[in-house]
Amino acid sequence: MTIELGLIEGYYGRPWTWAERAEQVRFLAPHGYGFYLYAPKADAFLRRRWMENHPAAEAAALAAFARSCAAAGVRFGVGLSPYEIYKRFDEDDRAALARKLDFLDSIGVRDLAILFDDMRGDQPDLARAQADILHWVKDRTQADRLIVCPTYYSDDPVLDRVFGRRPEGVLETFGALLDPSIEIVWTGEEVCSREYSPGHLERVAGQLRRKPFLWDNYPVNDGPRMSPFLHLRAFTGRPASIGAHLAAHGVNPALQPVLSRIPALTLAESYRLGEAYQYGAALTAAAAAVLGPELGRMVQGHLSALQDVGLEHLDPEAVARLRARYAAFDHPGAREIVAWLDGAYRITREEMEAS
After folding, report:
1. Is there a single domain that holds both residue 272 and residue 336?
2. Is 93 a catalytic site residue?
3. Domain total for the chain?
4. Is the pLDDT of residue 101 over 70?
5. Confidence (pLDDT) at 145
6. Taking 90 as the threshold, does the pLDDT of residue 354 lie above it?
7. Phi, psi at residue 275, to the nearest 5°?
8. Last residue of one domain, picked from the residues 230, 261, 277
9. What's the mean pLDDT when you consider all of the chain?
10. Predicted local confidence at residue 312, as pLDDT
11. Residue 232 and residue 337 in one domain
12. Which CATH number goes with the domain that contains 96?
């Protein structure tokens, strides 16, 4: 099954380095990952401070990364979150947004995503207000592709609890109002969906009047609930048949860039093999490809401790034993496991709310 695969750097917590991002692109591009959407929650100049210019050094690094993506044949994109701009969109907002679009054009953004997630949405004119902004952006950006994440991007009722009750028929109204060339983000029946079915995606496509752009929240492991776990297992619940119902499939990776490659490879394998896909065999091959055979086998042997039990429930003796085993390997993937065991990847609720 042919599907456009890509990476969406959309997590909370400590961002990857520019070198880690460039290496991620180089590693995954040959496996079919054809786009990279830069949208880390830690980049304040794309979120709460979006009206401000990126500092010169960060702007230069973004531009250099865009060139790295182009050299690898990967589409470079940016996710911009203009916080609750749809509540006013006045002259100052327009001027600031125009400046930001000019900057993004100047560094070579090919995919531009306007992200309205993590914002209040309980207002009756939400769909029209957001659609109007997207059409304004469409007339001004040089990006080849325009994507939007609506405030209600999943069926999950947690969005209504946190961001206010969604307006009646908001998806249908948004889909009807929005230019059909603009793609719409969807995460599934849940924010972190366990599986996707053709039936579900067909229903959503009918509501949106277009195939959804899938933002897949696996293997992401941010936040206080997920950061004590390493998400390493192969993808399941994503049969290749869903590809026919998607505009694209973007993966939100884990906080650990090297370890993220293991499940990422298995998703590509699932689409390649279709009904012949076997997640156990895919995991074995991916772990060996990313970590080498010996380290890969060891990680597979510890999957239950790393992904199911988690850091908060491992006793200190078990943590010490695991740390000693992985510290013996001179490999960046092993170093990520050691750092995780040391608590370096823990994310608190306060850190999330500050982003």
Report:
1. no
2. no
3. 2
4. yes
5. 98
6. no
7. -65, -15
8. 277
9. 97
10. 94
11. no
12. 3.20.20.80
Whole-angstrom distance, CA of residue 138 vs CA of residue 142: 8
The tokens describing 342, both together, are: 């040391």
Q: Is the pLDDT assigned to residue 79 strictly greater than 70?
A: yes
Residue type, 307: Q
Burial class (CB within 10 angstroms; exposed 0-12, middle 13-18, buried 19+) of 264: buried
- Work out the widest C-alpha separation in the chain, in whole angstroms: 60
- 65, 21 contact by CB (below 8 A): yes
pLDDT tier, 349 (very low <50, low <70, confident <90, very high otherwise): confident
Per the residue annotation, which of 118, 155, 216, 222 is the catalytic one? 118
Distance CA 174, CA 128 (A): 7
pTM passes above 0.90? yes
Put residue 188 in one of left, alpha, beta given phi > 0 → left and psi -120 to 50 → alpha.
left
Three-state SS at 236: coil
| Residues 153 and 93 both lie in one domain | yes
Tokens (6 digits) for 134: 């997207």
Domain boundary among 245, 277, 309: 277
Asked if 302 and 162 sit in the same domain, the reply is no
pLDDT score, position 42:
94
**Domain that residue 327 falls in:** 285-354
pLDDT-based confidence at 1, cuts 50/70/90? low
The identity of residue 73, as a single letter, is: G
- DSSP, collapsed to helix, strand or coil, labels residue 91 as helix
The structure tokens listed for 319 are: 């943590």
Same domain, 226 and 92: yes
